[in-house]
Amino acid sequence: MESLANTWQILCESPEPILISAHIDPDGDAIGSSLGLWHLFQQHGKQAHIVLQSIVPPNLRFLPDSQSILCIPQIESGKIQALFDSATLHCILDLNNSSRLGPVIQQMGDSIVPDNRIVFDHHINPAISAGLQHIYTDTAATCEIIASMALAAGIEPSPKAATCLYTGIMTDTGGFRFPRTNGNLLRMAAWLIDCGANPVEIYDRVMNSNSPAKLKLNGMALSALQCNAERDIWIIHLGPEQLKDYSVDDTEGLVMNTLMVEGAKIGALITQWPEGLIKISIRSKPGISINEIAAAFGGGGHAQASGARTTIAQYQPEQIRDFIYSEGRKKISIQ
Ligand SMILES: [Mn+2]
Q1: Distances 266 to 221, 289, 306, 329 between C-alpha atoms, Å
Q2: How many angstroms is it from 300 CA to the middle of ligand 1?
Q3: Distance 11 CA to ligand 1 centre (A)
Q4: What SS3 state is found at 121?
Q5: What is the pLDDT of residue 1?
Q6: Which helix H or strand E contains 13, and what residues bound it?
Q7: C-alpha neighbours within 13 Å on the C-beta side of residue 20
Q8: Predicted local confidence at residue 179, as pLDDT
Q9: pLDDT the model gives residue 252
């Protein structure tokens, strides 16, 4: 395994353009790490393009140069294909299974040989072939890894780069509250603030950006809270009728409501969409690992934060709920 400093050297010596991708339905860490790395390349006069399956969520569009991100729904796919045809290096961020790139990017990415992929990620159970893998499951965010690379390479991130990297660290730690928030992470965040990230403004732009409709959806989710007999697993299930005016992006973060109940050890959000998609998000308290529950539905993620996508053709939401109750109890009992 190369050191992060050596990997930066490899990146700097790579032919241009370099492509950067992160996961479908990008969050603050996916967008922040992609743009953070892109800005580090900018500082070094290196030509790079960010190509994503999904569009940038509205609350992350304030990030410097987010409008330069090339998203499949917004760009003619031939242009993105041409970039893949001309690029020799693909940086893959915040995912460790190429299916998480999304179908179009995954397929286009196949034109770049695995040896010329570099993965930066912090999820468990990697299943991706890449020439270089910087997968550190003890880090809080991919942005932390990119910032560590800058630090190791002796680069001071520009204010724009620092803003993007700080954002991903803040969002993936739920504002420095989730596991893996430690002294090193806070020192890293402090360094990014010293480099020009504004923590107050970033929090305001990312978090205080809900539409009234989204807040009402949150209200609907709170009203739908249900639990098992032991009252330690709390689940929100929203059906197609409740979601018909919303998108998957609108449900981001709703699952956190489930762990706010006193005594809750596992929480889940099951959303059933009008077109048949079922999205599952599962969270747990430290010491309880729930990624295997998500894996049972073809998903994955972290020990304490996992998710999966399936369809109504495969599972009824009630089956999923009951499975989470029964498997969740097993996880809690072995704690
Ligand atoms: Mn992440």
Answers
A1: 16, 9, 11, 9
A2: 13
A3: 21
A4: strand
A5: 66
A6: helix 4-13
A7: 26
A8: 82
A9: 86
